[in-house]
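**Protein fold record**
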Amino acid sequence: MFRRRRDKDTDPARRAAHYQVDREAAAEAAAAEEVGEGAPDEAAAGTGRTRRRMDDRALWVDTVVDQAIRRGEFDDLPLEGKPIPGLRGTHDPDWWLKNLVEREQITGVLPAGQLRRDDAELDETLDREPEEARVRTIVEEFNARVVDARRQLMGGPPVVTPTRDVEREVQRWRDRRRARGIY
């Protein structure tokens, strides 16, 4: 009557959930036949069966999740009570690729990924420079690489790294040096 995939399920909780879903589905089918819903017209026959399968699957998922909660498998999760990282108010279609690049620390493969990493480390790079002229040169070279990457017609993710204003970066470099006591 109701078929389910026979996996090599060794988890007793999962087998119990399957058993419970099958039993409830059989009871619902028997109740539907008694009421007279057992033979819908041909046009709706497939729809009713599909609907019952989806309901059965949802019931099974709920059962498995409830059992996992009772066993304590969701206790002490790393982000419990904290916002999910990476969720922002705007939708970025390349969110998965950006997260992959950051998580796996991929560098040198894609210009967009390398530029994002360089952009994140630019302040540290500038802080190691003792001369203002060298700071200007580094920022100008970074901007040139960003512009070149935007002009390339190669595939891959788009370059979303912004260019930096040279004068603003020099002023920020000066302010950070003053804050550290270097004049």
About this structure: Residues 95-177 form one domain. The helical segments are 12-35, 42-71, 95-104, 111-127, 132-151, 166-180. Residues 51 and 57 are 10 Å apart (CA to CA). The mean pLDDT is 79.
